[in-house]
Structures are given as C-alpha cells and as structure tokens.
Specification:
Strand content: under 5%
Structural class: mainly alpha
Largest sheet: none
Shape: globular
Helix content: over 70%
Length: about 425
C-alpha cells in the first residue's frame, strides 16, 4: 500500500498538480485500501476537519496579515534604514545590513517568502550599485530569509507545534539563539566576501542621523516587543500575540504613518485570505494523510527498515535532519512537516529527546531546504520577484548552505544553543 500511495503522489507532482491534490489523493487511496471502498469516507473528512481545528492555528493567518500590512506600509522600510545607519559603513556593511534586516523582519512576519519580497526588493538595487555580484546578492537574500523561519513568530514552528502537540511559546523562544548565530556567521561571511572582492564601503552616517533612524523605527520595533516580550512575560499566548500584532500593525499604518486606507486594508485582507486558504487546505490534507500512514503503521515499517530504532539520540537527530533537509529540497516546508513529524514522533519519544529541541532543528532544516536546489520554494520566489534565471539565483548559495548546515550540526551537539533561553524563560534556569 505504501508503494502505491507514494507512487500516485509522485506522478501527480510530476504532472504539475498543486501539492494539496497529491496529499488528498494519497489519503484517499489509503482509505480505500484500508477499508475496502469509500464506505468510510466520512472518517477521512473527520480527520481533515480535526487537522484544522486546533485554536493555535488561528495565529497563522493573523501573523500573515500583520506581515502583509507591514510590507505594504512603511514599517519594513524604516527597519531597513535603521540597520543601515549603524552598520552600512563597515566593510561588507550593506550585505550585513541586508542579513540583519531579514532577521528583524522575520521577527515580525515569520515567513521566509514574505522576507524575500519585503527586504530583497529595496536592498538588491542598492547592493548592485555598491559593487556586489548579483549571484551573491540573490543568495544572501534567499538564505538570510531563512532566519525568518527561526526568529519568532515562525509559521513553521506553529505548524510543528500543532502537529506534535508541543508548546508553541517554548518553540518561539528556542528559535532565537540559532537565528542570531546564523546572522553572526552570515555577517562574517559577508565581511570576508567584501574584503576579497574589494567592495567599497558606504559613507559613515552621523550620530544625529542614526538617532533619527532609531526614532523612525521605534514604532516598528514594537512588534518583537509584543511577540517576544508578551510571550516571555506571560502576558500573551502565541495566538493572542498574533492578534495584538494585527491590531498594532493596523494602528501603525493607518493612524500613525497614515500610509494605508480602507481600500488598502481590504486588498491586504483579501491577499491574506487567499494565502491562508491554501495553507489550511494543506494542513487538512496533511492531517488525513498522516492518519492513514499512522493507521497502516507505515512509519514503523520505514523506520525499522533504516534501523533508526538502533540509534541513540545523536543518530536520531541526524536522521531527522537529513530527512527534512532532503524533503524540503523538493516539497513545500509545511507539507514536509505535516508528513514527516508523525513518522518520527514515536522515535523521538522513545529515545527521550526534548520535543522543543527537535522542533527547532526541524524548523532549521526546512528553512535550509527551502533555499536549496533543485526545488526550494524560496528560490522560485526570488526568480519571480527579481526576474532572474534559475542558475543565477542558485550560483552563490553553496557557502550559505554550508554555514546553515554547520549550525545544524552545532545544534545537535550543543542543544543549549536553542534551549538556553527556553530554560531561562520557562523553567527559571539555564542548563
């Protein structure tokens, strides 16, 4: 049965169907095979509805909506200007500013693709004018956007938390350490690239201009305060933080900055609704598919075949990393989380791994896979946004991917990179 399900899904993918169709088809074939016909089809519908029932999923459309409002308004631009004012004059400063801006926007949007659009649009022309090669620019934007998947709020972490029944608040806090480490390493590589290529530095900005840039960015900086501070301080749940972010974004762009009117809000809400519809159909289809493969005990058969039950914690973490990295090179990250998390969940429990550590590692892997050839979704977002050929977009990616994989290995051997802040915030101790 497993061979038939996956064969049908692969054929449908190759024929160009959107991912929701192969997922639903795979689940349907599984139900027909298990129950000898369509007599139990209502069970499949029940599983799909159960997949989108968790209240914590409400945070997904609200974070998407808040990010869309920011992108269309002034908030994203003000964050970019503030970062540029402080590091733009350093060697490689413009590239460092781009990576930092991706990180800061990730602390608001939680979406890699939104970050590619919001940050890449205004900064790519400035980097080209400054003398950076376009392959480096595109690779930096695509890979630095991965940090948005780790820095809270992370849509990937929300989906993982729902599927695995893990605390989303703890996942959010755990993503901060790895995200900042990646930013540091990207900054060092950007400095080395600028030195090697002889990229000229930007003029130093006066302290007066820096203070003005900080004042201009104070309002947008309220987003991470609401999200991280609210959750850390026990004021908000992640879902409540998402609702607060939407309200804050609306107040900011309509009243404070006066950038958006009712018509703009309507268009933004419509765009968010379309994206949310696609995400929730994927989640529903993934829930039904996961139920089928679990009921048929396919995960146990696959994991037994590769001998994962003989591995210790380190071996299991490496196996999970490889599976998610390869999966996201071909398929949308949300789909990979929906399919693979239920497969690995029993093993994670058996070997006593911390589900928050596993969730952070999985989030990092799906972020890396999203920017990795051949079919990483962020690559095609960059192709569409910047109108550049495929080979030009991926040419500069290997150094960044190596850095990201290095952080993954470090996270496996030094889990406190992720768990230090989580323990400090939720257990009153670090270690």
């Amino acid at each position: 049965m497993a061979a038939a399900i996956f064969s049908i899904m692969i054929v449908l993918l190759l024929l160009g169907f959107p991912m929701m169709i192969p997922l639903i088809a795979g689940a349907l074939v599984g139900f027909v095979t298990l129950f000898g016909g369509l007599g139990q089809l209502e069970t499949m519908i029940q599983q799909m509805m159960a997949g989108i029932r968790p209240a914590s999923l409400i945070a997904v459309p609200m974070f998407i909506f808040a990010a869309d409002i920011m992108t269309r308004g002034q908030s994203a631009g003000r964050l970019i200007d503030m970062v540029m004012a402080f590091v733009g004059h350093l060697k490689g400063g413009l590239a460092i500013s781009t990576a930092a801006a991706c990180t800061m926007f990730g602390a608001v949007s939680g979406s890699t693709q939104a970050t590619v659009v919001a940050i890449g649009g205004p900064l790519r022309p400035r980097m080209q004018k400054a003398g950076y090669g376009d392959s480096f620019i595109l690779a930096l934007i695509v890979n630095a956007s991965d940090i948005a998947f780790l820095i809270p709020p992370s849509i990937g972490m929300i989906i993982y938390g729902v599927v695995s029944n893990t605390s989303i608040a703890e996942l959010f806090i755990a993503g901060i350490g790895p995200g900042l480490l990646i930013l540091l390493l990207f900054a060092l590589y950007s400095w080395a690239y600028a030195v090697r290529q002889g990229v000229p530095t930007e003029p130093r900005v006066s302290w007066g201009a820096r203070l003005r840039a900080v004042r201009a960015a104070l309002w947008p900086l309220g987003f991470p305060v609401i999200i991280i501070g609210g959750i850390y301080g026990g004021i908000f749940s992640p879902t409540e933080a998402a609702a607060a972010c939407v309200l804050y974004a609306l107040i900011l762009e309509t009243i404070v900055f006066r950038e958006m009117g009712l018509r703009d809000i309507y268009r933004t809400a419509k765009s968010t609704g379309l994206i949310t519809g696609v995400v929730f159909i994927l989640v529903a289809a993934g829930a039904a598919f996961s139920w089928v493969i679990s009921f048929a005990q396919i995960p146990q058969a696959i994991l037994s075949a590769v001998g994962i039950d003989q591995m210790g914690q380190i071996g299991v973490l490496f196996a999970i990393s490889v599976a998610f990295f390869i999966g996201c090179m071909f398929v949308d990250p949300i789909v990979v989380i929906l399919i693979l998390v239920p497969i690995f969940a029993p093993v994670v429990s058996d070997v006593g791994l911390d589900p928050v550590l596993v969730g952070t590692l999985i989030t990092l892997q799906v972020a890396i896979g999203s920017a990795t050839p051949p079919f990483g979704c962020d690559i095609f977002t960059a192709i569409a946004v910047f109108k550049r050929p495929y080979m030009e977009v991926i040419r500069g990616t290997p150094p960044f991917i190596l850095i990201l994989l290095g952080v993954s290995v470090a996270l496996i051997f030094f889990p406190q990179i992720a768990l230090f802040l989580r323990d400090l915030a939720f257990h009153g101790e670090a270690g």
